[in-house]
Design goal:
The protein is α+β, with helices and mostly antiparallel strands. It contains 3 helices and 8 strands; from the N terminus they run αββαββββββα. The protein starts with 11 loop residues before the first helix and ends with a helix.
Length: 125
């Protein structure tokens, strides 16, 4: 279902599938659904929002990692809904939250990415 402000109402698994499609360059089950060229073009920083944060074609792009050399592709949903692709780790992560009140604690995007990466590093040891 689409609402007037451009949002989507998706189940968490459907959101993850959409991001998985992009992680795999637009291919699903051996079929090209979105051209790899479009995936690449849409995930290139187009507009700089703030240091380390850019916007592509409907993608929030966050630099992270050593020297900010890696780029996470993310959505940004109401109340803290956060689907993320970490392409260097071949990973899709979907956070669901509901924090719409002012002054409530929240985690910054880079902190989230670093926590995921640190947890991965610990499990590999």
């Amino acid at each position: 279902m689409i609402d007037a402000e451009g949002g989507l109402y998706l189940e968490i698994t459907d959101m993850a599938k959409l991001f998985y499609l992009y992680l795999h360059q637009g291919e699903w089950d051996g079929k090209i659904i979105v051209t790899p060229e479009w995936v690449k073009q849409s995930t290139i920083p187009f507009i700089s929002i703030s240091p380390g944060v850019s916007y592509g074609y409907k993608w929030w792009l966050y630099s992270y990692g050593v020297n900010n050399s890696q780029l996470a592709w993310a959505g940004n949903g109401f109340g803290g809904q956060l689907p993320v692709i970490l392409p260097e780790y071949d990973m899709v992560v979907v956070f669901t939250a509901w924090n719409i009140l002012q002054g409530r604690p929240s985690l910054g995007r880079r902190i989230i990415f670093e926590k995921i990466i640190n947890t991965l590093a610990e499990t590999v040891k």
